[in-house]
Each structure stands twice: as structure tokens, then as C-alpha cells.
Amino acid sequence: MTSARDSSHQSDIGKMKLEADGSFKRAASAFRNWIQKDGEFTAEKDRYHLYVSYACPWATRALITRKLKGLEDIIPVTVVSPHMGDNGWPFASADPYPGADVDPLYNSQHVRDLYYKADPNYGGRFTVPVLWDKKKHTIVNNESSEIIRIFNSAFNDMLPPEKASVDIYPEAHRQEIDSINEWVYDTVNNGVYKAGFAVSQEAYEKAVYPLFESLDRLEKMLTGKDYLVGNTLTEADIRLFVTIVRFDPVYVGHFKCNLRTIRNGYPAIHTWLKKLYWNNDAFKSSTNFEHIKVHYYWSQTKVNPTRVIAVGPTPDIDPL
Fold this sequence. Notes:
GO terms for molecular function: glutathione transferase activity. This protein has about 325 residues and is mainly α.
């Protein structure tokens, strides 16, 4: 049952408080526990549940990693509707959108119900992904960068060797991965939001120019390469992919990130994107362009008050 209290300031990203200069600052995640041996949360089959939105880039990180690691039978997943309104992300019981699920655990109407179940006094944002513990009836973690590292190693003892050996955060490359993640998050992953949600020209330009400077830098890094770090797929690729796959369909128009498109302005990034999408089902099956477009254009009424959903580009992603 959804709480009657007004939590729209926690649910609707368009009602988030902006900085004095009109810029957007993302709040930190609140639940930051880990699944580990001898800890409060230990690795067990079917103890945990993952709640995601296909529309959300942060949630898609978790979906991709779950598939790469072969965790489908260990951690079930539930997908919300892309229509994020005053009450936040709805389940299919509240908004029966194609591809959305009902909450199989509590028949929650919205993701916020889970947050209030975990903490009745919760005052933060109701974000996805949510990694839920069915035994303790609480949220383990809602920070995607940590969830993908939990998925990378916490369940290895329960996986077949070929999946246990998949390592998206290899020790030899951790320093380089962390370094890339830092500036990619600030200027690209979150940079598109800082540009899109800016309400002053100054704040917008302060975000959009560094975004394209970083894309120029990534273009050089990916020229002649299939992956960002070493010759292997790492979390740096996963974290970048979720933004780049949304770039032309959403961020170019909706967020005014239109200095260049990926398909016409960045040949190396474009080839890298297509190879990941078309050659690795973990990326393709976790990407739902309809949910992505509907969510951004319909939900973010501060940016798009008409809720008219753009039909292009065609195709959503070019063939390989």
C-alpha cells in the first residue's frame, strides 16, 4: 500500500532543489551495505531481489553485470514502468505499461513503498536500482557503482567456473578503471543531466562543454580499441555504455547535448557502442529504447512540459 504522504520532492527529479547558479547536483545514495562472507548480508541463492528500470542508466549498469556474471537464477529481477511521476517509479499494478512487472514480493505500487518498508522515516530519493534482502525485508544497497562490484565477486562461489572467472574489476587495472570512472561520471554520466536540468545559460554551458571535451578524450582512447582499459571488458565500459546508448535517442535533443551526435561525430565511440550492443547480449537485452524514450520525455516535465515523445533517431542504434 502506498503511503499517503506527499513525497513528490523525493520522487520527481524535476522537483529537486537546484544550486544557486541554476545547476543540478545529484544526491548521494543512502543504503550502502555489502554482501560478504561473515557479514550481515551473506551470499545465498534467491535471498536477494533486484528492482530496476530499463530507462535508468544507473539501473542498467546492474542489469548488464547481472547478466555478464550469470546471476539470473540467483538474483531475480523486477522492472518498473518508465512513467515516473509524483509518486516516483510505479510497478505494473499502478501503471500497467508493456514490459513492466508487478512487485512479486509485497505487491508494492511504487518503488517508494520499498524504501518506506526498509525505513519508515526515509527522507532521501526513491531511486533504482534497489538490491533488496528478502530475509531481512530491507534494502542492502541502492548505489549502482557498488551493486555492480557486489555482483562481480560476492556470488563467485555459487557460479560455474566460466562465470566466476568473469571479472569486470580486475586487480591489475583497478587504478586505471577508478581514474576513468571518476571523470567519466562527473562530465559524461552525470554531465548529461547537469546540462539537461540546468535552468541558466551559464550552468548549461558549464556542463555541456566539459561533456564534449570528455567525449573527444574518449574518442582518442577508443580509436583502434574494443575496450577502454587493457584488452578486456571492464566496469569502465559498462558505466560508459549506459550513457552512450542513450545519447542520440535522448540526450542530444531532450538534454540539449547537441554539439555532435555519437553516430555522426565520434566514429571510434560509435563502433565501440555497436560492438558491445550487437555482440554481447548482456548489453542488448538490458537496453529497451521504448522505455528509455518514454521515461525521459514523459517523466521530466520540467524539461519537456508537453510530454510529447520524440520519434527519432531512426534507427535507435545503427547496425554493426
